[in-house]
């Protein structure tokens, strides 16, 4: 896509995913606006994008000028109506709450450019149901990025009931412009990757609960035996077990018994042990780094 600096992309939600998506568009030269009602979240996101860029410079992946230009392309805004004004694209990454997502897309639609496309980064909720909040859901699509966005190349494009071929084609071009590979998925609970990942992580937690193997060994088995970059328990800590539990509950209700959440996940979430963001999950974390040998031990009677 030529002339990226003339295309305005708005990301709503300055959490982990929103930050990564904002970085991806800023480094590709798009006019990038990150929107969040929390000034603290926006400041943290800007700092994290800056650190990713600095690391890229140190590793020789980008030049200092490219890093400076990327930061210059990134703007922060607390008011969605202001931030999304005349936007060509809006990508919402707010919490996995149907009504919250509907409210975001309705507000964005009122102020964005005519013909603009709205995307949702949801990993489990219905694209069709969210898009139904719009008068023209044909220009609404799922755009599921993966964490960490600056390292993961895949984007799942989710076709809702009303999503047109033109919308899919334009969104695939957008993915290509930021160096991502896209696949197209017809809407289904859990899509492809979330469904498989949820099942894998849930089974890993059942094995941990049953004392089949230690947390470290379960993760090592997947990394070394199947060449996964990260074990299922490490990934759950990174994603957040509260998020994982929400997804599993949804999949259990829609796809059946095989997705029943492991009781250990329910206990961990009740205890506030959400993972890396809480400093405690299956592993303990200090300053965002995993503490060696801190894997959860489950005593089996």
UniProtKB/TrEMBL annotation:
What sort of enzyme, by top EC class, is this? oxidoreductase
Which stretches make up the 3-hydroxyacyl-CoA dehydrogenase C-terminal domain?
Answer: 192-285
The GO biological-process annotations, alphabetized, read as: fatty acid metabolic process
Task: Give the residues the record marks as binding NAD(+).
Answer: 13-18, 36, 96, 101, 123, 147, 277
* Source domain of life: Bacteria
Per the UniProt record, one Pfam family is 3HCDH_N
Keyword field: NAD, Oxidoreductase
Protein name listed in UniProt: 3-hydroxybutyryl-CoA dehydrogenase
Q: Which organism is it from?
A: Marinobacter adhaerens (strain DSM 23420 / HP15)
